[in-house]
Request: fold
Amino acid sequence: MAFTKPTQLLRKIHPALARERYTNKIAVLSPGLAISYSDNNGARVGYPTQAQKTLLLNGAAQARAIMRAAVLEMDRVVILRRPEGQTFTNIMNYHFGLAANRANPTLKSNVVDKPFSAKALLQKDRRWVLNQVRMGMLSISFHINTGVYLIDIDNAVRPGAGANDEGYVNGPADLTGLFSAFKNGEIHAAFADMQAGGYTADAVARVIIHEAAHKYWGVEDQHYAHDTAAYRQHDCDESLDNADSFAWAALSLFHGNLIHGTNSLDLHPQVVAVP
Ligand SMILES: [Zn+2]
Reply:
């Protein structure tokens, strides 16, 4: 019986995946990072450059460290039930739509550090939201700490690639659970553009975490963090289904400061003045 590779099956399901035949090389840059790119069947020499590889390595390592720190912080509050602390509260209020001025029609209680009660276990309250955040962070962290695989977008060279894509994941990106990692396609990132654009390790890590939230946690894009007016309208349900919310909350938890992006490249995160 002939064996059909999963990627070929995926192409049948999603016509957009047909262009996935573009890359022809795979390189393992470290135990935690493999990349795929095109050397144009040997004609393209010296690509990716050492500077691009170094940036990808630093970005992947930073993404792993950020996610481990984010999970520890979520565990501290959700599992160990320690007090949130003002910084943690600000980060969750801003990035996960829990600020007092957000409309949250489905939330029964938004009390910080609410004491344990058996009744509250069945309630959709602040602790329920924080646990949803924790589960998402845990899944993203588990997967990218197991190993990151990045496929080059190669904007300048690849036929049909969007000129400004820094990263994306193919597929419907709405599948959660057991099959999300398999069905949602691989993480694509613009190796050359990120390096040429001055991306820091933090910025590359944000791209990886954002795309990993699509791939491994099946969330959508409601609004990007740099789209601040709309982003600040998110309720908790929209935030829980938004890749940038996980990415920026994780970066904020790692840095111990409420930060967000301010433009489409998000290279210089700013401290948020309005939680
Ligand atoms: Zn996205």
User: Anything to note?
Assistant: The first helix runs from residue 6 to 13. The mean pLDDT is 87.
